[in-house]
């Protein structure tokens, strides 16, 4: 019968080191021996060093029935152990082989049972002592609150239980770079706490094995690997997967790495969280060291303590911040906001908008306008950023703490490094910003030189001196609860913008309905005035001219002159009436042309233009400083002239006319049927006044409260004023008391560029 070893002799190179087959080394560590048996209990694998522990060689056992070599009783003990699930993988099987006591760990590798035997420990730890230590640890664990405190306690407890010189809790980041998160070591040793190590120190295939086999021992770093032999039965690529082995030989690169660190023995316990390798408990000893199964189990429990508490402790660590975020979100969503685009000014200035995700700046883009607060880039860069995000991702949400990795051009000369972006639909967006956070990382050696190549091949680095790295161009990482809060508010803001759009559409239709209603009323009035008021002077002209024609022979010069004057007066009345109708019908909705208008300039020019009329009526006009408003200059001049003319026309005969003009000195909010006005101006006179029930009707076209004989005019003056204020998006009202006077109040719309948050 032929035999062969299955030692993997593949040369590790720069191109294959990430794929080194460390799970099939074909060798073990020498502090035990290994036997591999088939399902029908024939010995198919055996290590060369079996002769060190038993008076037998591997040649003598390979290809034989297990019972024929070790006895049927031993085989039955092993089978009973395998079939007893409660015991398997907790404590190894204690068994006697050829008069010597061994502890055997058993696992199945495909269709092979792998038996790993180590000599029974001469000094057996008392389970009661280990149990007592564990209970004490659990009691202390309950007194810790943060994950870091718990890991520090585990490091201390593991070193106390195992007796290793150094115990480190090693935590991985997203790229599997490691950090010594907690540590307990001998006082004479240089601490490694806080040091970082590159992901190449533990390559991908090693991390995969740490997930499959959660406890790994190297008893003596200077060991000489023992080859595994098998029956040479011409099977192609015959090998033995040792992923779950306790004796598996380690990669020569890893052994050299540990030697460079001066380590003599190691124990590694995997920390697995959500099916991912979260970290390791790494125990180092500076001489040879092995530990009993009881101690191994107790150490493994330390890892279970950490992994069972990661979610809870991380939640505790984040709980205070998360509570603040939730409180800010509740306050923000609970704001009593007007259903108008102006509400964005209030929102952007609210501190809670930054607090919900602990951002330093925020910008809202709506209808092509940018609202900003805190740390935010220029408008051009914001639009460019949105364009780049759209090109890169179709998702509504995009987050990064390294903008330079995603959009290098935008990152240049930017005052931010991290963003949370959320699309609000309809071309609207919200973006939160964080600034660059410059971080100093201490590495255990230069991470760029973790693998060294020379004439003899690949080697791990031999320098572990602290290597400082300054990390720039990144912000602090967005926590998940911060991202969630941002997303929740983005949805709330989206709903607010939808309500604003619906409200504006409703207002638009309401306004159009009012305009249509008033237009129909105007057409009826114009039709009436055309058939009535215009016919009356026409009849007079016709009557006078007919009479003159019939009396040409007898009419005197004085009579002709009087008749012609009467004809001219009637024609003049017609011309004035037609002019007023023309003015009225020419006023359109011109809100798109609104501009900043200084009403002081309008009033001064109006008084100057009407100076002669004011003097003729011996009127007194008093006024205070007027505001700047959003309107149209020539319409405001027409408005002021009409209001003052109206006051002079309806002056009382009992007293000299007096007009007092006052105004709001600061913007004010006046809610009235879905409308918001920012400024008002009041014209108060001491004229004849009117009954309160006519407060609305006096603004209707061609409406007169008095006869033509009492007060001349077309009845269009105040209707023209109302139409002017409608044209600029404002309003006009009247208040009157008979024989006391009239107040005309005009209300101006808010400038869209103004913020209402200061009102």
Keywords:
Beta-Lactamase; 8-stranded antiparallel beta sheet; 6-stranded antiparallel beta sheet; 24% strand; disordered C terminus
Task: Give structural notes.
By secondary structure, the chain is an alpha+beta fold. It has four domains: 3-119, PAS domain (Beta-Lactamase); 127-222 and 248-318, GAF domain (Beta-Lactamase), CATH 3.30.450.40; 334-436 and 474-501, Beta-Lactamase (2-Layer Sandwich), CATH 3.30.450; 588-759, Heat Shock Protein 90, CATH 3.30.565.10. The chain contains 21 helices and 31 strands. Strands 1, 2, 3, 4, 5, 6, 7 and 12 form an eight-stranded antiparallel β-sheet that branches. The chain has a six-stranded antiparallel β-sheet with strand order 10-9-8-14-13-11. Strands 25, 27, 28, 29, 30 and 31 form a six-stranded mixed β-sheet that branches. Strand 6 and strand 7 form a beta hairpin. The chain is rod-shaped. It starts with a strand and ends in a 10-residue tail after the last strand. Residues 455-461, 706-714 and 754-759 have low confidence and may be disordered. Keywords: ATP-binding, Chromophore, Kinase, Nucleotide-binding, Phosphoprotein, Photoreceptor protein, Receptor, Sensory transduction, Transferase.
């Amino acid at each position: 019968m032929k035999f062969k070893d299955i030692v993997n002799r593949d040369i590790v190179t720069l191109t294959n080191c990430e794929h080194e087959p460390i799970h099939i080394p074909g060798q073990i560590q020498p502090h035990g021996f290994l036997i591999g048996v088939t399902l029908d209990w024939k010995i198919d694998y055996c290590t060369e060093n079996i002769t060190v522990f038993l008076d037998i060689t591997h040649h003598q056992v390979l290809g034989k029935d297990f019972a024929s070599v070790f006895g049927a009783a031993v085989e039955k003990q092993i089978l009973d152990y395998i079939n007893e699930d409660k015991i398997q993988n907790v404590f190894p099987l204690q068994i006697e082989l050829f008069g010597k006591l061994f502890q055997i760990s058993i696992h199945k590798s495909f269709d092979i049972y792998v038996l790993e035997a180590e000599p029974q420990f001469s000094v057996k730890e008392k389970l009661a002592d280990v149990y007592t230590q564990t209970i004490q640890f659990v009691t202390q664990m309950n007194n810790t609150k943060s994950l870091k405190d718990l890991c520090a306690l585990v490091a201390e407890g593991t070193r106390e239980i195992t007796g290793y010189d150094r115990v480190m809790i090693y935590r991985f980041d997203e790229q599997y770079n490691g950090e010594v998160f907690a540590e307990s070591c001998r006082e004479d040793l240089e601490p490694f706490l806080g040091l970082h190590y590159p992901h190449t120190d533990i390559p991908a295939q090693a991390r995969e094995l740490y997930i499959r086999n959660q406890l790994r021992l190297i008893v003596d770093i200077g060991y000489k690997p023992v080859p595994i032999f098998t029956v040479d039965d011409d099977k192609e690529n015959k090998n033995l997967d040792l992923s779950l082995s306790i004796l598996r030989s380690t990669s020569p690169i890893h052994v050299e790495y540990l030697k460079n660190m001066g380590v003599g023995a190691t124990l590694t316990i995997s920390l697995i969280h959500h099916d991912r390798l979260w970290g390791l408990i790494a125990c180092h000893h500076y001489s040879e060291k092995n530990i009993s199964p009881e101690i191994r189990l107790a150490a493994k429990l330390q890892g279970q303590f950490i992994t069972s508490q990661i979610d809870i402790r991380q939640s505790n660590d984040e709980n205070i911040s998360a509570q603040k975020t939730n409180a800010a979100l509740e306050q923000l969503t609970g704001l009593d906001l007007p259903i108008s685009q102006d509400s964005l000014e209030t929102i952007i200035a609210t501190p809670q908008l930054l607090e919900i995700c602990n951002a330093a700046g925020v910008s809202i883009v709506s209808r092509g306008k940018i609202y900003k607060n805190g740390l935010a880039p220029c408008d051009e860069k914001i639009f460019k950023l949105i364009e780049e995000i759209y090109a890169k991702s179709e998702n509504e949400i995009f987050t990064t703490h390294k903008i330079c990795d995603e959009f290098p051009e935008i990152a240049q000369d930017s005052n931010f490094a991290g963003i949370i972006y959320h699309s609000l639909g309809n071309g609207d967006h919200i973006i939160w910003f964080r600034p660059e956070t410059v971080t100093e990382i201490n590495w255990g050696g230069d991470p760029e030189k973790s693998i060294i190549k020379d004439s003899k091949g690949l080697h791990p680095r031999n320098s572990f001196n602290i290597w400082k790295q300054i990390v720039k161009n990144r912000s602090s990482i967005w926590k998940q609860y911060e991202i969630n809060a941002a997303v929740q508010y983005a949805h709330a803001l989206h709903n607010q913008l939808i309500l604003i759009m619906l409200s504006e559409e409703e207002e638009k239709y309401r306004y159009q309905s009012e305009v249509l209603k008033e237009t129909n009323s105007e057409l009826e009035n114009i039709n009436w005035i055309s058939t009535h008021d215009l016919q009356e002077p026409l009849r007079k002209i016709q009557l006078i001219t007919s009479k003159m024609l019939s009396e040409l022979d007898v009419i005197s010069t004085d009579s002709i002159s009087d008749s012609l004057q009467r004809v001219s007066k009637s024609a003049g009345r017609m011309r004035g009436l037609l002019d007023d109708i023309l003015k009225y019908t020419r006023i359109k909705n011109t809100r798109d042309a609104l501009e900043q208008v200084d009403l002081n300039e309008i009033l001064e020019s109006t008084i100057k233009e009407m100076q002669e009329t004011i003097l003729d009526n011996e009127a007194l006009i008093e006024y205070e400083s007027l505001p700047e408003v959003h309107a149209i200059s020539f319409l405001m001049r027409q408005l002021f002239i009409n209001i003052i003319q109206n006051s002079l026309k309806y002056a009382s005969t009992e007293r000299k006319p007096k007009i007092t003009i006052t105004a709001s000195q600061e913007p004010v909010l006046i809610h009235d049927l879905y409308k918001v006005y920012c400024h008002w101006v009041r014209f108060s006179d001491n004229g004849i006044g009117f009954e309160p029930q006519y407060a609305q009707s006096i603004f209707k076209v061609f409406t007169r409260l008095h006869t033509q004989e009492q007060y001349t005019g077309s009845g269009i003056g105040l209707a023209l004023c109302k139409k002017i204020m409608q044209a600029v998006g404002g309003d006009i009202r009247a208040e009157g008391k008979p024989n006391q006077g009239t107040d005309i109040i005009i209300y101006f719309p808010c400038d869209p560029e103004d913020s209402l948050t200061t009102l």
